[in-house]
Amino acid sequence: MAYVINDACIDELDGACVDACPVDCIYEGLTKRYINPGECIDCGACLPECPVDAITAPKAGDPVWAKDNAEFFALPLPGRAQALGDPGGAYGTGAIGVDTPLVTSRTKG
User: This protein's superkingdom (predicted)?
Assistant: First the structure.
């Protein structure tokens, strides 16, 4: 089980967590970041870096947001024909530019 980013990250794309991640597994949607559960090594380097405390440790997080993070990679997102999967790091993909339906329904801005 990987670290999870919850709804406190919506409209907060600071990026300190990304810089701290040694395996580049934190991806940027349109308004929120997502941790790839297939690439996360559970090191916890991102946890203290989040300015809004949106990251939760494995087994301590909300299952709704754990599912949402996993779906960002496992299901085709709106406007995309295929699932993102495990591309091997966020640096090469850049901003994905779309969020999951759950995040879109809760967008603050």
Answer: Bacteria
Contacts of 98 (CB under 8 A, 6+ apart): 29, 30, 77, 78, 79, 80
Distances (CA, A) of 10 to 14, 81, 87, 100, 108: 11, 24, 23, 11, 7
pLDDT tens per residue across span 68-104:
999 999 999 988 899 999 999 999 899 999 999 999 9
Report the CATH number that the domain containing residue 8 is assigned in CATH: 3.30.70.20
**The pair of three-digit structure tokens given for residue 48, joined into one six-digit string:** 């203290």
Q: Whole-model pTM above 0.90?
A: yes
Q: Which helix (H) or strand (E) holds 68?
A: helix 63-74
Locate 8 and state its tokens. Answer: 């406190």
22 in Cβ contact with 12 (< 8 Å): no
Which tokens hold the place of 96? 């994905």
